[in-house]
């Protein structure tokens, strides 16, 4: 039970390392990592929020025009 | 630029029909060369990574410019009405990308660079702008030194010869070759080297880089054409530029492109006057140190004979390491040494010493003896350096009565095949020929360069990771240099470390081979192959 929890945390750590390596944040200073991650989070959250708010309306109007 | 090609030699039938010495059995002629293409997602992610680094680099430069952050490099003050001194991307790169991972490059060592080396640990408080030695020495397996035959040792017959020579000759002749610098041991070295390479004569110089850079100007000049491979070493490029000849490059190892260029050169002649070229010199290398590929010597020789050009082969990495008797690419491809006009090589790699040589016909070497810049102005080679080469040569040629030399060559061939095969089967992209002791494994992304080096050092392997400007911007790699001094246990340790690091950093890019862990590989196969060749 404990070993599977440890393995899960190791897996999360491995995923975090992949994120750092693939975006080249691994070689940046901590404040630059925070800056980039904040920017990325802001962009992604804005995209997700607009999708959640506007997609149902758009989809409904599309179905109405084509039916 | 990346192409996947495999070629099998046409002369394998002639080598198989030869009598079965042990060395011939070991050296089954498998000439397979492959450069797997970069996977698209890896290229895209690499470029994105560089874009993020560039953006943050601009931000940091702006902060330094407005004075928010202090400037730590030498800065061009850019006074009014003066042309700026530094403009290119390379300075931006050095300040913002190279310095961040500077601790993995140029690592100082504290022991003899043999099969094992002690790397000095460096710590940095301010993100690699300054370093402090912690005093700790990390013992690690040396996978970065060009120690192909394992002669870089501080004990044994070679170092004893070197010590005796200091007692006999002192350290320096304090003179150039033209003045009072030609010692008895220089003549012995040159005749021994000429015999080793099966040519008429040879001349040796104190520095391998200088051998290329200062002797190509004696061979070519204005009105000549130099056709050099795109991936030639900087010393060859420098020598070609210094000579004043016209330089044209052909694609790496592409014989058709070379033939096309030769064809065009002979038809059109010199650029403005259309006069015929005075001579055409083709410059290739035996083993290319960043790719691990061998040059296609028989085809190049056929072209050279057809178009009557001259051939210069730089065997820096291949002399001693390639071929069943260790005589370089000439021995590997079994061509006539008289077909190659200028043989060049260095003593730094396989002989455990320093210096370079040029060998060929006696008339050529006589000309170089008189007209070379290096022979005329640079000081002659030092006694222990030369005696180390002479004793290493005696061992390799079997003159000392043992078969230690032949054993070293076979050990290197076994190590190379064992190591390369396993890395390939684990799913890494490995460039180059199956027989070359230089094993480049692709990394591509800039952050992974640092990650691989640090993680391998933590696991006790000192490797060399290379990025821009030694390679293309998006083609960074880790380059292993195998040695005859590595035992099977060391190679197993290195492979296990590479397997772990490959999983941690996700370096398995290959699309052709399945991605396997080290314990998934069938160990018995590789062990059987290794022990049978030994």
Automatic annotation (TrEMBL), chain A:
UniProt keyword terms in alphabetical order: Endoplasmic reticulum, Lipid metabolism, Membrane, Sphingolipid metabolism, Transmembrane, Transmembrane helix
Pathway info: Lipid metabolism
Family under the similarity heading: Belongs to the SPTSS family. SPTSSA subfamily.
One GO cellular component, as annotated: serine palmitoyltransferase complex
Subcellular location: Endoplasmic reticulum membrane
Name of one Pfam family that matches: SPT_ssu-like
Protein name (Swiss-Prot/TrEMBL): Serine palmitoyltransferase small subunit B
InterPro entries per the UniProt record, alphabetical: Ser_palmitoyltrfase_ssu-like, SPT_small_subunit
MF GO annotations: serine C-palmitoyltransferase activity
Membrane topology: Multi-pass membrane protein
Major subcellular site: endoplasmic reticulum
Record field: transmembrane: 12-28, 34-57
Annotated GO biological process: ceramide biosynthetic process
UniProtKB/TrEMBL annotation, chain B:
Catalytic activity of the protein: L-serine + hexadecanoyl-CoA + H(+) = 3-oxosphinganine + CO2 + CoA
Superkingdom per UniProt: Eukaryota
Keyword field: Acyltransferase, Endoplasmic reticulum, Lipid metabolism, Membrane, Pyridoxal phosphate, Sphingolipid metabolism, Transferase, Transmembrane, Transmembrane helix
Pfam families per record: Aminotran_1_2 (PF00155)
A Gene Ontology biological process term: sphingosine biosynthetic process
Record EC number: 2.3.1.50
GO CC, one annotated term: endoplasmic reticulum
Names of the cofactor(s): pyridoxal 5'-phosphate
Main localization (coarse): endoplasmic reticulum
Subcellular location: Endoplasmic reticulum; Membrane
GO MF, any single term: serine C-palmitoyltransferase activity
Cleavable signal peptide: none
Domain Aminotransferase class I/classII large: 141-497
Metabolic or biological pathway: Lipid metabolism; sphingolipid metabolism; Sphingolipid metabolism
Matching PANTHER family: CLASS II AMINOTRANSFERASE/8-AMINO-7-OXONONANOATE SYNTHASE, LD36009P
Family listed: Belongs to the class-II pyridoxal-phosphate-dependent aminotransferase family.
Protein name: serine C-palmitoyltransferase
Organism field: Rotaria sordida
